[in-house]
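Protein 1 of 2
SEQ + STRUCT:
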Amino acid sequence: MLQASTIAIIKSTVPVLEVHGTAITTRFYQLLFTNHPELLNLFNHANQKQGRQQAALANAVYAAALHIDRLEAILPAVKQIAHKHRSLGITAEQYPIVGTYLLKAIKEVLGDAATDEILGAWAEAYGIIADVFISVEAQMYEAAEQQPGGWEGFKPFKVVRRQAESVAMTSFYLEPADGSRPAAFLPGQYVSVKLSIPGQPNTHIRQYSLSGAPDARGYRISVKREDGGEERPDGVVSNYMNHDVTEGAELLLSAPAGDFTIDAAAGEQPVVLLSGGAGITPMVSMLHHLHKADREATFIHATANSATHAFQAEVASLAQAGSKLKAFYSYSNPTEQDRADRRFDKEGRIDAAWLKEVIPAQPAVYFLCGSPSFLQEMYRSLQSLGVAKEQIHVEFFGPAASLE
């Protein structure tokens, strides 16, 4: 337990973290990677370059300081991060390293304002918070390994089939290379894929949602090719997966992880799935589950046009006559043929007015997945329609961001 004096000191730093948090975490990662370059094998370099990882850590540190007197308030966020840590292979031995360079970054950025008293309080607080993460992650590691079909670390899977889902997305059907049956997963969960790409100095680990039916013999992941532009380069891993990973190749996978799932908490209320672009991948798995359970569900998906619209036929087969599933599509840039064939329900971006027309009138449970900007727009639209925060569940591809 933290001493009252320590809690008071940490609380006093909240306004400082609100202003300097991202500067501190940016300097932290510079120090960390300079002194421990081996940790570059665990991080998404694109998220680092775009500042998403630094912002996410700054938000996490701020939240920890704000709720330091009642850490149970951040336990949901801890569990969400812990799922990602377990799938990446983060170890307990790495936490002291992180603590060392986080304190150094605080001192460097804040200068004389970071007194010995403040640094001592943060060292004590970090130790408590790290112990929480280590404890939660230890339980997750044990559960992942001891479940039927589970395993430790990364296990070789063979690509038994690959299939184009759109002009930019390819699905990979995966089965354990040793012929065993892999662990079951909950609809909405993901796996980490560990790759050694020719010409790249570090290994790359990416987390991909499991897009197949939860009761399938193997796994399916669906990877959208990330084409760059003036502001960012092409996605190294997504392009490698789409262009170079062929049938017969082996990929290293972690056991399934993640808490973006439909569970008993959803009760018997209708379910609404809202996705944009590649955010459709966990939704397809959820749709298979909901269809089998004969649950009332509404699926709303936004994409550019029919060329980028993945899983059209698969979802249509689930939403056929007699099903309790309804599907609606928004195309931001439809072709003339899309208009002629009436392949979509709304032209342009999804807005609150249209959402009101298609979502259930009664209370429902909402699941959102897509880009940060899409999630912010959908979250705010649902809030404006009176949907309670507790009814909205969000999955970020990459570091979490603020939705407010």
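Protein 2 of 2
SEQ + STRUCT:
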Amino acid sequence: MDRIAGIINLDHEQDVLDELTYFRCGAAVPFAGRYRMIDFAISNMTNARIESVAVFARRKYRSLMDHLEQGKAWDLDRKFGGLFILPPDWNDPTDISRGDLQHFHNNIDFINRTLANYILVSGSQNICNINYQDVLAEHKESGADVTVVYKKVDELYPEHDRAHKLDIDENNRVTAIHNDQHNSNVYMDMYIIDKNVLHDLIDECIAHGCTHFFLDGIKGKLPDININAYEYTGAHALINSIESYYRNSSKLLDPEEQERFFKEDNPIYTKVKNEAPSKYLTTSNVTNTLVANGCIIEGHVEDSILFRGVKVAEGAVVKNSIIMQRCEIDSNAVLENVILDKDCSISEGRTLIGAPEKPYVVPKRKTM
């Protein structure tokens, strides 16, 4: 039986979400009312029956560890395999590896001990609902050394400028990896690689002083290795800026878009928090809004996303905004095109207005 082990590589993901990543890494940023961005990567792996998942984390991962715990929410709290949060080992005086190759080298035991034949490597910034068993089937059929996943986007946005793009021939072979802003074949920062090939490329990259496994070990080896391309056609959001976070979050207010990301047969899991149902008082007026549990709403809310435990007082107005956990909005406050991080308080009568293309962001635990 062919098996896959999963690696979520956060090492090269920069903290690009401004105020939202002051106190956490991007993978731990709340998303869609009750999830974190990393939930999609882990859920896709566990839905594909992957039983061993390692997370390569380097900085600001306290919030991430608090959220993931032992992996119970994803059925990864198990005796054999399970969830491993792996920072690099800084105490090996013989280690000459750099960049994310430190993670691959210093945590090589995870790769060696797994019974998997294939290693799936993914980031956290590409939000999707993908069946990795389909990717594996195509990888095996192609006979390739590596299969990379891409999305042919209908419309290019600014966040796609930073993403790698693929040139693909008629046989689904990757012929070039680059940053052409006009190419719509967006690489989704995920690939399946044969375990033995991964080993060889890690050793070769370290021997040549490389710092980035994908850029140096995969992109840099074209055309020496056989790279196949798998086209993902489902719902996709690339989040690498505040603007892309706000825009893609707002799209989830469309029920059809929700169904594309949150499928009944391929669910997205998250850490469970048992709270009371949300309460709508007689003065409340709520339209086209995602409301998580534990909220108390007395004011006017429209076209917004409220995370757990949000309180909106009577007379307050919230429009086109994302309000994270336990925020409190006092009476007669007005918020429009605003993102409030967790535990913020907006005083009575205060007005905060951003622009749809540039939302007003309030960092965690701020009182205004």
